[in-house]
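Reading a protein record of the kind used here takes only a little practice. Think of the row as the fold of the chain written in a discrete alphabet. A record is reproduced here so that you can trace the correspondence yourselves:
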Amino acid sequence: MPKLLESDDPRRPPIQPTMRGIQISSYVSGPRDLKVIDLPSPTPNKSQYTIRVHTTATNFFDLLQIRGKYQHQPPLPWTAGAEFAGEVIAVPESPSGQKKLKYNVGDRVFGAAQGGYAEIVVAIEAQLKPVPEGWSYNEAAGLFVTMPTSYAGLVTRAKVQKGEWVLVHAAAGGVGLAAVMIAKALGATVVATAGTEEKLQVAKDFGADHVINYRDADWPLKVKAMTPGQKGVNVVYDPVGLIDKSTKCTAWNGRLIVIGFVGGEIEKVAMNKLLLKNIAVMGLHWGAYALNEPETTESVWEELLAMMSRKEIRGTEFTGRTFVGLESVPEALEALGARETWGKVVVKVPQQSSSKL
């Protein structure tokens, strides 16, 4: 067992000086180049909590960041990973200007901060939320990015109303499944697209009313034919890059939400298609709300946590394979990048005896 760092502050109990983690000292060509090594435990600033990571979650942006191709690249060296769930093991001296701490030592939290692929991570209060009652670390680890992205896209931007029809692309992915559940909770009828029969079934299991394989060249016509009066869907939620084709099955006054481009190409859309149907296309950059509209992040999370307590939404962790130990992060990222999974791919981080201190 490593010797513990001494501390006289009861809010900052002794923390082991070293941990295991995945450090990027130079950019790699792919996940298989990642290595788990011994690292100094992170030193929190006066506003940061220290969290013992129980489960970490994978994201597509992790695949870009380790290659040096993401829009946010920390200065080398840095610890990879972002999303996590775990236990608070030390609290800050001053939580971002607030007088009262939201979390205490021993509280179960989930969040996102640079360094999630490690045994210990530090994060400010705004980067943390409480694990919902009755939820496991595995279920909570993949919530922080996907759930608010989908809620803000559907509610803050598209303003989905009860009775409307919502088309969710890549519906078996992390943000896709979140969008399916949120749209259903809002009273919408959900049409889900995916590329395999297995993923279409997953979307149905999470509440989709209708499913369509987007590898079928006629999917826009089939989606339109499903809708009342064959008028088309009211809202399109698109993390793939299918906006142009989606205009073919969008109703008058339709709202199209651009979430991302996991399909690989950034689209070009002829503006006359938007004019003819009075279509509005909106982007959603959830990560930028913390800087530009911090008050919105709070309201979004208040409603999401209420939805969780009402059991309207649940965890989306992938259960097709089990990934245990930081050494399995490369395999998990590889499976994610190869589209071999659904939902959120999470990695359980086994706890050593020292973690109980």
Notes: The longest strand covers residues 48-57. The radius of gyration is 21 Å. Residues 294-309 form the longest helix (16 residues). The CA atoms of residues 188 and 252 lie 17 Å apart.
